[in-house]
Structure formats: C-alpha cells, structure tokens
C-alpha cells in the first residue's frame, strides 16, 4: 500500500508531463493525457499539483535544470569563449551530419 504522499508517484507524473509536452505540444497537455502516460489515477493530478500550470512549471523547471547540468558537463574542461564556441559548433555540425544520414 502506498503512503499518502508518495514522492515516486509525483516524480512519475512530472516525467509524464514532459513526455506529454513532447508528444502533444505544450498547449495539448491535459490532466487526462498525463495520467494515461504516467499510468496513475486521474485524481493523482490534483492530489500532487494544484493545476496544470503547476505541472507545466515543474516539468519545464526540471528540463531546464537537466539541460544546465548537461551544458556544464559538456563545457567543463573548456576555459575560454573561443574554445566553447568551437566545441559548440563542432557538436552542432556532428548532429547535422547524423540527422542527414
């Protein structure tokens, strides 16, 4: 039996919100879509979050935090602007080549 305030369920809902944004776009996200993706009861949406805006803010905040950590790791050993720009452009060119295949 789950505890009344289950942090794993809350996290699952936030992850499902991120997936819903990717799949349906930010304007297409609904409580029902999130609950279906997270495989949780619809009532969990309002149990853990006051509304769709709070869910979207949490999901986008986590995304921003994750991207910030990834950028910090990506540029950790580069100490100047020229090196950062060079690494960034090389990475973009590699991605463009990968997508062209």
From TrEMBL:
Any coiled-coil regions, as ranges: none
Domain of life: Bacteria
Domain HTH tetR-type: from-to ranges: 7-67
GO molecular function: DNA binding
SUPFAM superfamilies registered for this protein in UniProt: Homeodomain-like
UniProt xrefs under InterPro entries: Homeodomain-like_sf (IPR009057), HTH_TetR (IPR001647)
DNA-binding region: 30-49
Keywords: DNA-binding
PROSITE patterns: HTH_TETR_2
Record's protein name: TetR family transcriptional regulator
Species: Citrobacter koseri
């Amino acid at each position: 039996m789950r505890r009344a305030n289950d942090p794993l369920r809350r996290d699952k809902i936030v992850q499902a919100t991120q997936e819903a944004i990717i799949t349906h776009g930010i304007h297409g996200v609904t409580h029902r879509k999130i609950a279906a993706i997270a495989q949780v009861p619809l009532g969990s949406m309002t149990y853990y979050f006051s509304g769709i805006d709070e869910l979207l803010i949490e999901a986008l905040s986590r995304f921003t935090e994750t991207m910030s950590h990834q950028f910090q790791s990506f540029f950790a050993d580069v100490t100047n602007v020229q090196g950062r720009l060079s690494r960034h452009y090389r990475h973009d060119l590699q991605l463009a080549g990968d997508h062209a295949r």
